[in-house]
Amino acid sequence: MCQWCMKHGAGGKWYLNARNYSNELADERNMEAYLTEQWMNFETVFIRKIMGFSSIGLGYKLKMPIIGRVLRWQAESMIHSESPGRKPVRADGHFGQVIPVEEAKIILSSLAAEPIIQNYCMCRMMQRNVKDVCCINFGVLSGVIEKLPRFIPSNTKVRLGREEAVAAVEEQNRKGRVATVWFQPVPYVCAICSCEVPQCGGLRLRTDFGLHAVYKAEYVADTNPDLCQGCKACVAQCQFGAIRYSPTLKRVLVDQARCFGCGLCRDACRFGALKLIPREEVPGLVGQY
Amino acid sequence: MAKTSVTIDYSKCGNYTGGIDPRGCGVCLGVCPPSIFIRHEHLTAKPKDPLDPEFWQITAVWLDLCTRCGKCVEACPLKAIRVSW
């Protein structure tokens, strides 16, 4: 379990704690006002100057000798901010974690607050000009997004029942997208996304700049060398470059240090050779989220 | 290595300054392999409808990831993009 489980998990994983989904929590911290401000200005989050720096050319800025380290510290503390003065236009306190599809199903079938809606993926709209109905939002955030016409799909229904939401996440997973669950803002949980590198704002910060806007899952993929037939079906599914075919061994190898634990490779395997094991069971990966 | 700069001529692209509305085009967003462009509402414009802003432009944000392949320069129908280093 990561530090956020310790803080907001009530003894379990943070995204399986029902209190983090409750309307009482949202009312207590006035989440509706925060989310309205955040979603009205969401596309400008990387353009805005924060303490004199915008994200334009972020990689160059982070490589600067001393300023780079200060900026990294500043960015990390903004992403994980829990202070009452956090700014919605900078999406302070908005970060998430990769989850395997079975946990996304648990969340949508029993934990997520009604109403549940599906809307256009904001990241893909702003970074790829693609309108893709794949994000599932719930609780207070549903009401906020329904007022913003640019996120509302025109050719399909917006509000979903629990079974429909589960089916939608499974469908995205089959297409090869990684399920993620999001604090928005911490500790309120109100979104499940189906993300894809590189056109995901959160995964971009994590995979290209090492900022913890998305944490790795509580699991890692593990191969069974006796069952692997070397068909390479799993290799095509991995978005993180963690899996490759070894011609010497005639089977695939998982680089567990790179694995995000999304489970896409496992679902692609026809021989049951891949499974997800808890991250804590691999001594070298304990605490590596 | 020298820093890459990707400049977009906003007199051609960008509704705010009179060019075409990037919401209707967005070709550069689609062709860029590392996806370095972001289309965003204009920061200083005062939109008439705050829930659905009207003034949008495209900015190249993740410049260090740019491989200078030139696909955006070729694809832009208005020849508004210039990549230099």
What does this 3D model show about the protein?
The complex is a heterodimer of chains A (289) and B (85). Chain A has 289 residues and is an alpha+beta fold. Chain A folds into two domains: 3-215, no CATH class; 219-285, Alpha-Beta Plaits (2-Layer Sandwich). Chain A contains eleven helices and eleven strands. Chain A starts with a helix and ends in an 11-residue tail after the last strand. Chain B has 85 residues and is an alpha+beta fold. In chain B, the strands form two sheets. Chain B has a two-stranded antiparallel sheet with strand order 1-4. In chain B, strands 2-3 form a two-stranded antiparallel ribbon. Chain B is elongated. The relative contact order of chain B is 0.33. The model of chain B has no long low-confidence stretch (mean pLDDT 89). The interface between A and B is medium-sized, with 28 and 23 residues.
C-alpha termini separation of chain B: 9 Å
How many helices of chain A? 11
Low-confidence stretches of chain B: none
β-strand percent of chain B reads 15-25%
Oligomer: heterodimer
Please summarize the sheet with the most strands of chain B. Answer: 2 strands, antiparallel
Mean pLDDT metric of chain A: 93
Sequence of secondary-structure elements of chain A: HHHHHEHEHEHEHEEHEEEEHE
Element-level helix/strand string of chain B: EHEEHE
* Strand tally of chain B: 4
CATH architecture heading of chain B: 2-Layer Sandwich
Main sheet: strand order of chain B:
1-4
Helix content of chain B: 10-25%
Tell me the span between the first and last alpha carbons of chain A.
9 Å
Beta percentage of chain A is 15-25%
> What structural class do helix, strand and pairing data of chain A support?
alpha+beta
